[in-house]
Amino acid sequence: MFYREAGQYKTSYAADMAIFPIRQDRIGIAVILLIAFVIIPVFGNQFFLSSVMIPTLVFSLAAIGLNILTGYTGLISLGTAAFMGVGAYACYKLTSWFPGVNILVWIIASGFVSAGVGALFGLPSLRIKGFYLVVATLAAQFFLQWCFVRIPWLVNYNTSGAIEVPERTLFGVVITGANATPTARYLVLLSVVAALTWFASNLVHGRVGRAWMAVRDMDIAAELMGIRLLTTKLLAFAVSSFYCGVAGALMVFLWYGSAEPEVFVINQSFLVLFMVIIGGLGSLIGSFMGAALIYMLPIVLRMLPAALGLPIASATVEHLQFIIVGALIIVFLIAEPHGLARLWQTGKQKLRIWPFPY
Amino acid sequence: MNILYALFVDPWVQMGQAPDLLVQTLWEGLVSGVLYALIALGFVLIFKASGVFNFAQGIMVVFSALTLVGLHEMGVPAFLALGLAVAVMFVLAVAVERVVLRPLVNQPDIILFMATFGITYVLIGLGELIFGGNPKRMIADELYLPKGAIDLKILGGFVSLQKIDIAAAVIAAVMIAALAFFFQKTRIGRALRAVADSHKAALSVGISLNQIWAIVWFTAGIVALVTGIMWGARSEVSFSLQVIALKALPVLILGGFTSVPGAIVGGLIIGIGEKLGEFYWGPLVGGGIESWLAYGIALAFLLFRPQGLFGEKIIERI
User: Fold this and answer.
1) Between the CA of residue B79 and those of A102, A344, B62, B71, B140, what are the distances in Å?
2) What UniProt keywords are attached to this protein's entry (chain A) (predicted)?
């Protein structure tokens, strides 16, 4: 009834190729941005901002990164956490060398460092594929993690062996360190994530993205059609690592405040992979939905017994949480193997003909 | 020059000077290699028959060993507990086939891979809920596993072999022989190989895929139980074993995902390479390289043989 594209004519190629060709979608995204930028910071409390919204956004960005590699290019990676770590450590080094430069510049720059490392570890992807590649990315995961632990230079030889985020300001407002308010951190994070999502969306809709998808669907065929595998695959690794690196830097600087090497363990990689798969492979909005679901699910599960007044010990809740999350993953995969993004599309399709079924 | 000497000459000099130490290191590598090979074997069995990359194999090792020890702690006699643990693995195999594999048949590989993550989480939760998360001692004495060590006097020094390690190697060899017999000579084994070759062709000659999958998962469960007992007897039964199980992945790469001999040879290469590397080259970079060396070795191999040592040659067509 309200969601109907009838009568919206496209008169130019640009209009046809627009990211949101339907007017209702444009209104929808404007409303979402309005809610995210204005309503949540104004009405959300500090706890909600700092322990729900900020982590979800950070993971969304990491999930977009992995989705570019796994969902769009079809290369499975289990090294996400390590690339996030590269971003975080690079950002820390850069900002301690040049404290005067704006932190946002270094956050983006650390993404490029991570992209370089990612492209290096992406080299084997030219020879090997599928699950063999998974193990190659595991090599990156374990090797980089070992570097984080063993090379004290990375954390400026401080005794704790952890990144301790210094205080940095943006337009005179403190955005990192202990004195930054959740609202300030949230708004900076949201701006970066929104900008990078917009960039990713353009990337995957353009020539590069189509080359990635061709490689995903069948790389030999893509090669025969004149797509250069070397550049395409390495670019996918680089862009993916760029996103993961920025996500890692944002995670440490705007969320954790300090980070030990244990933050970037393999379980973190698994978590991001869950988000991508549950959200939907090859879908940007799916990355957001997957991140929100996987991150919030344990929080909700932890709060549920107390809210319902059930007398369950917290250790038992912890174990039950594992079982429930595991079972839900299986149920989700059986019910909708294409993830939340597909559910979203089905919903939109239903909405299109609502309230008349035909 | 010094760096080159330390990297390329000195380790060999050290090996030559203390051959007993070298033999000891080789033996340690061999033993851990056997255990890697056992975990990899579980992976290969399932991958061959159902095309599922079973991430849950590591937790199955922990879970089966935990069931055994946990039941014994509850007062069940050791061998009855062993039988019950086998029964639990059977129930698990049937449940996995019913609840996970059957509804997900014909889905892309990555979806099935993710589903085994779900199984992993469920098993972690179940294991901790029922038996608790604390490390437990393996009931080695009650199962009449040998303990103590044999000291060999060779090469001008001592080499100490733990009896449990020898037992592990022997049991692994026996089990692999039994599996080979099972695969080659029995009716079910032939059906398993048929399914491994082609699902559709196997179905068309009347082999029940569901039954075969349950059997394969059960076999992998038994392999997991044996691995769990052996590994538990060397250290203890705890959830940290699960991370070590990830070491089976480079073994798989080396050997190829579909090859049982590959899993064994790969396991031994990785085990020995890792221990030698850690012992002779590790100190040069501050140690701890064991955590990634295996992956490095596997990666180096992969660049030359993308399908692993014994894997089937990958032929691609449009």
Assistant:
1) 67, 53, 18, 10, 11
2) Cell membrane, Membrane, Transmembrane, Transmembrane helix
Does a structural domain hold residue B224? yes
Task: Flag whether the ipTM exceeds 0.85.
Answer: no
Tally the domains of chain B: 1
Residues of chain A with Cβ-Cβ distance to B113 below 8 Å are 131
Contact B291 A320 (CB under 8 A): no
Contact A316 B104 (CB under 8 A): no
Q: Do A124 and B303 touch (CB under 8 A)?
A: yes
Q: Does B2 fall in a domain?
A: no
Query: Which residue in the set B99, B117, B286 is minimally distant from A329, CB to CB?
Result: B117
Decide: B46 and B260 in contact? Cβ < 8 Å.
Answer: no
The whole-number pLDDT of residue B156 equals 64
- Chain B interface mutation, best of A73, A75, A77, A146, highest count of B Cβ atoms under 10 Å: A146
Q: Helical H runs in A151-228?
A: 182-205, 207-217, 219-224
**Are B129 and A135 a contacting pair at CB < 8 A?**
no
Residues of A in contact with B243 (CB under 8 A): 266
Answer whether B292 sits within 8 Å of A146, measured CB to CB: yes
Does A243 have pLDDT greater than 90?
yes
Collapsed DSSP state (helix, strand, coil) of residue B154: strand
Distance CA A34, CA A28 (A): 10
Say how far apart CA B105 and CA B200 lie, in whole Å: 12
Q: Which domain holds residue B207?
A: 29-304
Q: Please state, in angstroms and rounded to a whole number, the distance separating the CA atoms of residues A183 and A44.
A: 9
Using CB atoms, which residue from A132, A281, A326 is nearest to B122? A326
